[in-house]
Amino acid sequence: MTFDYHEPRSLAEALALLDRYGDDAHLMAGGTATVLLMRQGLLRPGHVIGLRAIDDLRGITPTRDGGLRIGATATLRAVERSPEARMYSPALTDAFASVATVRIRNQAMVGGNLAHADPAQDPPPMLAALNATVSIRSSRGERSLPIDELAVDHFTTSLAHDEIITGVVLPPIEPGSRETYLKFLPKTADDYATVSVAATLRFAPDGTIAETRIVLGAVGPTPIRARRVEDALRGQPPSRVRDALELVPDEVDPIDDLRGSAAYKREMARVWTGRALARVTR
Ligand SMILES: Cc1cc2nc3c(=O)[nH]c(=O)nc-3n(C[C@H](O)[C@H](O)[C@H](O)COP(=O)(O)OP(=O)(O)OC[C@H]3O[C@@H](n4cnc5c(N)ncnc54)[C@H](O)[C@@H]3O)c2cc1C
Fold first, then answer.
1. Structure pTM?
2. Over residues 25-48, mean pLDDT
3. Cβ-based neighbour number of residue 232 at 10 Å
4. 15 and 34 within one domain
5. Which CATH number is 22's domain given?
6. Domain with 26 in it
7. 137: helix, strand or coil
8. Closest Cα to atom 21 of ligand 1
9. At 186, which CATH number?
């Protein structure tokens, strides 16, 4: 494993390095995924660009409108421990606290987690249920992307090679909204999810469901938004949840693996979506 390691101190410097070395450059945040891939010989960059020294990528700060901005190099542990994140939504804290072990959470960073695009990761479904936007920079300019347009397949994103995630922006949460994150871990407590469910829900004044967002992890090539379930529940009383859950198995697209058969995961997706909705409609 031989490569040149660069640790730029500014975003401009990092972007210039990406432009200079093109496909031979690879970004590194916490390195938990990158180092494994390099050790396995699946990734052989000539230049590794470490992002941890760039001030502009740091921080977890409330936005003026009541939302939250999380910098790309905030560690998963920093988000888990952030009073601002907990104040924004305790379910956000739960999702970050669900990742593997403290050791991994101390190392892995938000931008690395999103760009790695493993569909079984914990933060992305919760961030999607909270309607997050990803901020992206390249030497060509700046753009924002709804988080559910970032991952496009297993371990694949819509990012161009010269783009850097600078952070994630969460909009203000509407008054009366409830949120939850549940992770089904039948094997060990530090495993990736067999199924995970992030849900947000807001009631209308008449007690019907005004809006819900349901995002499932580990049951498809990317986090999956259960849109048909959401549509079936909009304007309905919570007593309709049971019927709507029958739509879940057709929303997901799991694979057979060590954590269970596709059929088992479809059924678990239905069961755990029911548990998540029970928490937000209680
Ligand atoms: C044993 C183990 C168990 C784990 N279990 C879980 C789990 O249960 N749940 C969970 O959610 N995660 C889990 N993870 C962590 C997860 O799978 C990733 O390894 C981690 O989130 C990657 O973050 P990182 O900062 O280390 O990224 P890195 O390894 O540094 O980078 C990952 C990828 O992102 C790119 N990248 C990094 N930063 C940026 C940026 N700012 N802009 C654009 N691209 C960027 C890199 O080029 C690379 O392709 C686990 C990891 C390990 C090793």
1. 0.98
2. 97
3. 19
4. yes
5. 3.30.43.10
6. 4-50
7. strand
8. 113
9. 3.30.390.50
258-279, pLDDT tens digit by residue? 999 999 999 999 999 999 999 9
153 in the same domain as 91:
yes
Whether residue 154 contacts residue 132, with contact meaning beta carbons closer than 8 Å, is answered with no
Cβ of 48 closer than 6 Å to ligand 1, yes or no, is no
3-state secondary structure of 84: helix
Q: How far is the CA of 124 from the centre of ligand 1 (A)?
A: 12
**Which DSSP symbol is given to 148?**
G
Per residue in 90-142, pLDDT (tens digit) is 999 999 999 999 999 999 999 999 999 999 999 999 999 999 999 999 999 99
111 CB under 6 A from ligand 1?
Answer: yes
Residue 75 confidence (pLDDT) = 98
Residue from 3, 6, 32, 75 to probe ligand 1 pocket by mutation (most atoms less than 8 Å from CB): 32
| Å from CA of 34 to ligand 1 middle | 7
Assess whether pLDDT exceeds 80 at residue 244. yes
Asked whether the predicted pLDDT for residue 1 surpasses 90, the reply is no
Average pLDDT over the chain, rounded to whole? 97
- Is the same domain home to 125 and 215? no
C-alpha triplet 226, 228, 234: angle, nearest 5°: 105
Do 62 and 163 belong together in one domain? yes
- Residue 182 main-chain phi, psi, to 5 deg: -125, 140
Domain boundary among 117, 139, 170: 170
Distance 203 CA to ligand 1 centre (A): 35
Question: Comparing C-alpha atoms, which of 116, 179, 114, 182 is closest to residue 146?
Answer: 114
Ligand 1 atom closest to Cα of residue 159 = 43
> What's the number of domains the chain is made of?
3
Same-domain check for residues 101 and 122? yes
Domain boundary among 170, 189, 219: 170
Q: What percent of the chain has pLDDT over 70?
A: 100
